Amino acid sequence: MAHATKQGPQLLNGFKRLTRFDKGLGAQLPEAYKKFWREWKMTQPAAVHYIPKDGVWERDEVTGEIKPVQNVPIPLIDPPESHQGIWGGEAVIKGFQKRQRLSRRVPHFWVPVLKRSVVHSQVLNEYMSVVVTDRTIEKIHECHGFDHYLLKTPACDLRSALALTLKRKILIELLNNCPSLAGQPSERERVLKEYKCYLEAYTPEEIEWYGYTYDEAIKKIAAQIREQNKPVPHKLEFRRKLIEQLQQANMKSETESDEPSGKLAAKSSSDSDADIEALTKLESPSSSSTSSNWLSKINPFGKKQET
């Protein structure tokens, strides 16, 4: 009976729950941002807090039982402070710890060791003081530079909003041919030659939308919609209509001025005679007396005429 209902064919493969990209302003986000979102939130990150096992099957050393290999990632917690630094893929782990042999286990949080360090970006030509971990410093050394680390590492391994923002700025700087190094032509040429290869994996639209959180992307698309559909004040609309009416009146007067002068003179003389007759009627004493009599009847404070 699935064919009997409108939504029946859609439910044959299971009910699809609406996501944040299927309703509201999220549905108007471009495909470039959705691609970044899949890279950031829906891609499996590299193993940081556990050692993954190779192969498909493994043998238990005690019982000799053959079991399938299960590399289950540890759930991670990203506090707000993690987005203000670059933790190198590390995060907070929530679990239990048995501190004594005969005591019950208690909840425990494992937090990475944080330190403040200075990093240098050759593309941006800036020194930055950020909160990092030992793994961040190791990865920067492995990639031979801070810029290489950000550009080589996918969004799911960077995790931090600060790192993604810096990566977007670096990509935009490379796309614009490093305007911050305009005063150093030789350094600018060297940097472009070394880092220009990273632009091959992105389009200009993907670079524009790269590194934004969902709330920032919603604000950006809302601002673009407001800019495209900017409201026009009524005074401007009324002014436009008034100008059009004045232009039409001016065109009519110009067409009338092209008529023969005799007709216009006769018309003007007849109009002037009619105006003079109307004025004489108003100035006549009979009309003034009748109007005064009419007003005296209505005015309750006026003097009554003796009969």
Automatic annotation (TrEMBL):
Compositionally biased tracts (Low complexity): 284-296
Domain of life: Eukaryota
Disordered, as annotated region: 247-307
Record GO cellular component, one term: mitochondrial large ribosomal subunit
Signal peptide coordinates: none
PANTHER family linked: 39S RIBOSOMAL PROTEIN L28, MITOCHONDRIAL, LARGE RIBOSOMAL SUBUNIT PROTEIN BL28M
GO molecular function annotations of the record: structural constituent of ribosome
Protein name, UniProt field: 39S ribosomal protein L28, mitochondrial
Matching InterPro entries: Ribosomal_bL28
